[in-house]
Design a protein that fits this description.
2 copies of one chain form a homodimer.
Chain A lengths: L8 H8 L3 H8 L7 H14 L5 H8 L4 E6 L5 H17 L2 E6 L4 H13 L4 E4 L11 H5 L4 E4 L9 E5 L1 H14 L5 E5 L5 H16 L9 E3 L4 H13 L8 E4 L2 H13 L9 E3 L16 E3 L2 H16 L10 E4 L2 E3 L9
Parallel strand pairs in A: 1-2, 1-3, 3-4, 4-5, 5-11, 6-7, 6-8, 8-9
Antiparallel strand pairs in A: 10-12
Helix pairs in contact in A: 1-2, 1-3, 2-3, 5-12, 8-9, 10-11
Chain A binds a DNA duplex through helix 2 and helix 4.
GO molecular function, one term (chains A, B): transcription cis-regulatory region binding
Keywords (chains A, B): DNA-binding, Transcription, Transcription regulation
Protein name (chains A, B): LacI family transcriptional regulator
DNA sequence: GGAAAAAATACAATCGGTTGTATTTTTTAT
DNA sequence: ATAAAAAATACAACCGATTGTATTTTTTCC
């Protein structure tokens, strides 16, 4: 092979006997450069095997064409859809993604924020570890680097949030269960400091209230919504006498719902005849469990795309994101067998 | 807020009345700089709110502390585990990840390769779209930038592959099915140009041969292993008279196995009594389907960690990866109900 | 105490594009 | 044909850290 030394715009300039400035501008189709010259430059660049040096470029232009992504966990079905959507939009818009996970830990998140800051990302996309405190993003805000929160968001005057209407979604789920004839409905929720879970609880409550059903605090359980969490809840339910058990369980995600169902089924409980179930997310497992799980379709891929697209538009100056407070994506209730009528 | 202008090493130098060189070396604990001076520099840096400019640094040092990752698809359970493992190791080793997906398309992969190349990643981690041709990685090889293939790999003298022993794993699955009394065993495989699927087919064949079972070409189906693919195979099986159906199906992933099972169950076929099943990957859905799916545990998280760790060690000069041809991770057969004995 | 060795610091070039402004070339209008 | 306007190109400073070498300061040792 040849290709030992890197080709720079200076090499191209010398080769064509023009100035590096013209080459630089020519390569990015600057209008003041004659079309013919641009063509010559492009050809020479290809012929010599030129590749642009993004550092030199970023050093001067102060833009990196890179977006930072910080998420609680990478390995969930939902998050992988989000990332796929993000990657798709980013690649279309000419951006790269740097991805890091906070593992739900605030200090890890803070560290990630600083790394992204030092890497000079052009913008940041975040699903929060804890939404209570977002002061560690101030380094971004004070430098006017745009930050978009998605899914797990926190209100902040300088950032945009991309969410679904968790309140309404949970309201619809609960109302559906009520319509099916269930009265004592349990809510299995997550960390109530996170908007997604507190909103879902609120929707649940509101639905009960609107249908004149008593809200019983004992019927609200919060957990980490993992597989174990679902199994534990099942154990608790099994401890109760059948008649004391809730008639339906409205879970804040599919994982906990599914593993709770599995444990109950193994103990001989019939779903939905003895206890009905509903979940959240439309995870693949919701269509494998028997009976199939009623759930809320959570458009992860679209959310990822929307987040990146908004950010890119803002960075390109097409729209100003600071005017946009919140983008709410459409979600929908998917009714399946698990929420069937009571026997 | 204050923080309008960026602080550089020149500002620190001026502030302490020393040279920028000393600041630069001091900041990275260069041994020729007096300990006391280093301390002073660190303090001044903190006080002034200095953040290093990675471009300026990379421009000169020609290292980016960034690794490129190219995968066929981001949104699969397996890949999200891999990424989680990669992110974990990368963050530990002080590297960032730039992630892109090829969507199984060779041209998209080529494009990604060039982007990564231009972004000057220090190394590349790739699971291939098609393993037939890897010439588009030559830009990396000729510049001696390390490339690691994982999962979907292609042999190349200048790169390391990280895989599991697909041959043996498939052999064990097939042998297990044989031991359970199944004789006519179907193999549902993927694109045979990819090492993972061709090796699995090979393992299947070898197991048949070692147990004196006839290999029937008609019992090998290849598809894209998606949900639809599984459903389609079920339809084909249902067209056959029950006695003509295979006694077991050995699938190259869990998704196709599970959706095939679902379709058969809906048609009244009993699993495993009428047809037994085995999959590959240990996807979450394999533990939700009833009966639970016998499968091969595919250590995605470990694979991701191993890939990044090897690459980082190589880049740090701790080990030389070019000596390592292949790293084989342990996988294991997980026996569940779907592969039960024949009635 | 002074020369030699070692340690610490400084100089200055460099990495490769970008960009405001100046200069040259070409086109337009009179 | 020539002045004015427009288009195209070139100059030169700059972005901020790194690094080989030179210089200064400190330490060591006879």
């Amino acid at each position: 092979m040849s290709e030992e030394k890197e080709i720079t715009i200076y090499d191209i300039a010398r080769h064509l006997n023009i100035s590096p400035t013209t080459v630089s501008r020519g390569l990015k189709d600057h209008p003041t450069i004659n079309i013919k010259t641009r063509k010559k430059i492009a050809e020479a660049a290809k012929q010599l095997g030129y590749r642009s040096n993004t550092f030199a470029s970023s050093l001067r232009s102060k833009r990196t064409q890179t977006l930072g992504v910080i998420v609680p966990r990478l390995n969930s079905s939902f998050m992988s859809s989000v990332l796929a959507g993000m990657e798709n939009a980013a690649s279309r818009e000419g951006y790269n993604l740097i991805i890091a996970q906070s593992l739900e830990q605030a200090d890890k998140e803070m560290e990630n924020v600083m790394t992204m800051f030092n890497k000079r990302v052009d913008g940041l996309l975040v699903s929060l570890a804890h939404s209570s405190d977002v002061r560690h993003f101030d380094v971004f805000f004070s430098k006017k680097i745009p930050v978009i929160f998605f899914d797990r968001v926190a209100p902040h005057p300088d950032s945009t949030s991309i969410i679904i209407d968790n309140f309404t979604a949970a309201y619809q789920v609960t109302r559906h269960l009520i319509m099916q004839g269930h009265k004592r409905i349990m809510h299995l929720g997550g960390n109530m400091l996170l908007n997604v879970y507190s909103e879902r609880l609120r929707g649940y409550k509101q639905a009960l209230q609107d249908h004149k059903l008593h809200f019983d605090e004992k019927l609200v359980i919060t957990g980490n919504l993992t597989e174990e969490c679902g199994t534990d809840v099942a154990k608790q339910l099994l401890k109760l006498k059948p008649k004391d058990r809730p008639e339906a369980v409205c879970c804040a995600n599919d994982t906990s719902a599914v593993y709770c169902m599995i444990a109950l089924k193994n103990a001989g409980v019939n779903i939905p005849e003895d206890i009905a179930f509903a979940g959240f997310n439309n995870d693949p497992i919701s269509r494998v469990i028997e009976p199939n799980l009623t759930t809320v379709n959570y458009p992860g891929y679209n959310m990822g795309q929307a987040a990146v697209t908004s950010l890119a538009n803002h960075l390109n100056g097409d729209t100003n994101i600071t005017d946009t407070n919140t983008i709410v994506l459409r979600s929908e209730l998917i009714i399946r067998a698990s929420s069937g009528k009571r026997k």
